[in-house]
Amino acid sequence: MNAPYVPFDPWSPDFVADPYPAYAELRARGRVHWFEPTNQWLVPHHGDVSALLRDRRLGRTYRHRFTHEDFGRTAPPPEHEPFHVLNDHGMLDLEPPDHTRIRRLVSKAFTPRTVEQLKPYVQRLSGELVDGLVAAGGGDLLTDVAEPLPVAVIAEMLGIPEGDRHLLRPWSADICGMYELNPSEETAAKAVRASVEFTEYLRELIEARRKDPGEDLISGLIAAHDEGDRLTEQEMISTCVLLLNAGHEATVNATVNGWWALFRHPEQLAALRADHSLVSTAVEELMRYDTPLQLFERWVLDEIEIDGTTIPRGAEIAMLFGSANHDPAVFTDPEKLDLTRTDNPHISFSAGIHYCIGAPLARIELAASMRALLEKAPTLRLAAEPVRKPNFVIRGLEGLGVEVG
Predict the structure, then answer these.
(1) Per residue in 317-356, is it b (16+ CB within 10 Å) or e — as a string?
(2) What string of DSSP letters covers 233-297?
(3) Which H helix or E strand runs over 382?
(4) Which residues contact 71 (CB under 8 A, 6 or more apart)?
């Protein structure tokens, strides 16, 4: 029997350029859809996605309860092991009790006060980056502002020396390639190589911080303990990589996706330029409107039912964040960019126990760069139509050429 038609084609350039019409069709066709090319159940509605993110019958991993064989899955190939060791010890891909323990210990070092103390640094760096863009009469908003800001901030938090920071984004980009649907062997090889190099680098840095602690997050992770619990060295390494990858991939893409949306909606950009107090709601709306993380996966640990469809243990669910954020059942006129939108329960930072621990920092960074561009580059305009990256899951642009003056 042929699989039913599903208006979802994450490898099509046309779909990647604008997936939102297909999402609308998916939502209209039902609450859950089987997608044979990735062997996943697609969930497009906000209410279902929001509930499933909190449903403990689903998990980011199944290894805390089942072997690969018990779960009807094949173990990853041995040559991919360095990537999986790095990825599988990070709290994003763990479930309780390990997730609870690691998140609690990381939270001791990654406090709201720590994040708030970074605000002056973030604002100063944003201003300096935009000053450079203005002095040059324009450039690539991605490489000149969007990318260096969050990379520098998370590197500053972790205590990574300035001379080493150029290594971080290439490692991160190669590792994040594995989060796309059905990644190629070439993508896997790059991720493995980056995982090995990044792990070795952090192992040396952690050893140096053990001997000579500082005020940085790595020193804080080494010191964090609770009733005898401490992070293992692998957990520390995986946490640092997770904080870097999650801490800037989403922010970089939210920045360029957001400004590309503003350039396509000149009336909204004009309103923002006229009233900078809209920045906080603008940040939330732009993250909703063109979501930097389009899809998030969960394993079904115990059988569930969605709208009369039974989804068995061992299945994988793909929650479509981009679709959920355009659901008219939740958002009034969802296809409209409205920077004054205040009722905005977008799920771009996920929900439940895996809610993004770095969300407050991301909001500070996005607001700081937006304010700096509004204040220092009031004539900022598009220089050329941007090219969208071929990736679907992590949604972004190859660059965003702009002019000033």
Answers:
(1) bbbbbbbbbbbeebbeebeebbbebeeeebbbbbbebbeb
(2) HHHHHHHHHHHHHHHHHHHHHHHHHHHHHHHH-HHHHHHHHH-GGGHHHHHHHHHHHT-SB-EEE
(3) strand 381-382
(4) 62, 299, 313, 314
Domain contains 4: no
Question: In total, how many domains does the chain have?
Answer: 1
- Is residue 146 situated within a structural domain? yes
What mean pLDDT value characterizes the chain?
94
Distance CA 387, CA 136 (A): 22
Give the C-alpha distances (Å, rounded to integers) separating 396 from 109, 187, 260, 344: 30, 18, 10, 22
312 occurs within a structural domain? yes
Q: How confident is the model at residue 395, as a pLDDT?
A: 96
Beta pairing class for 316-320 and 40-43: parallel
Residues of the chain with pLDDT under 50: 1
Strand partners, 394: 293
Contacts of residue 3, Cβ cutoff 8 Å, sequence gap at least 6: 34, 36
Q: Is the peptide bond before 13 cis (omega within 30 degrees of 0)?
A: no
Q: Which two tokens stand for residue 60?
A: 């980011």
* 69 within domain boundaries: yes
What is the span of the domain harbouring residue 333? 27-403
pTM of the model: 0.94
Separation between Cα atoms, residue 213 and residue 60, nearest integer Å: 33
DSSP tag of 95: -
pLDDT digits (tens, 9 = 90+) for 253-272: 999 999 999 999 999 999 99
pLDDT, tens digit (0-9, with 9 covering 90-100), for 282-317: 999 999 999 999 999 999 999 999 999 999 999 999
pLDDT per residue as tens digits for the range 214-246: 999 999 999 887 677 889 999 999 999 998 888
Q: What is the pLDDT of residue 29?
A: 96
CATH code, 376: 1.10.630.10
Displacement of CA 215 from its chain's centroid (Å): 26
Distance CA 268, CA 260 (A): 12
